[in-house]
Amino acid sequence: MVSHDEISKLWEGAIMENHSLYNLIAKMGKVLSVDTRIELVTVGKDGYALKIEDVASCI
């Protein structure tokens, strides 16, 4: 799991609001959704996790 704070560190020094992060995560989810084995999962209000079924076949 990657927390919201950890993701925000990627934009260190930049002004970033929560809706910007949510928009980015939504876009990433759409891109990843083309492969049904990969899913971007929201972990409560803590952060996000990448769920990959059958990892060996994705490599």
Brief synopsis:
This protein is α+β, with helices and mostly antiparallel strands and 59 residues long. It contains three helices and three strands; from the N terminus they run βααββα. The radius of gyration is 13 Å and the shape is elongated.
List the helices and strands and how they pair.
Layout: E1 2-3, H1 4-8, H2 18-32, E2 38-43, E3 47-52, H3 55-58
Antiparallel strand pairs: 1-3, 2-3
Short descriptors:
single chain, 59 residues, alpha+beta, three-stranded antiparallel β-sheet, 3 strands, elongated
**DSSP E strands, number:** 3
Number of domains: 1
| Cα-based radius of gyration, to the nearest Å | 13 Å
Q: How much beta, percentage-wise?
A: 15-25%
- Spatially, the strands of the biggest sheet line up as 1-3-2
The arrangement of helices and strands along the chain is: EHHEEH
Query: Structural class per helix/strand content?
Result: alpha+beta
Let me know the largest β-sheet: 3 strands, antiparallel
Q: Pick out the low-confidence regions.
A: none
Shape category: elongated
How many distinct helices? 3
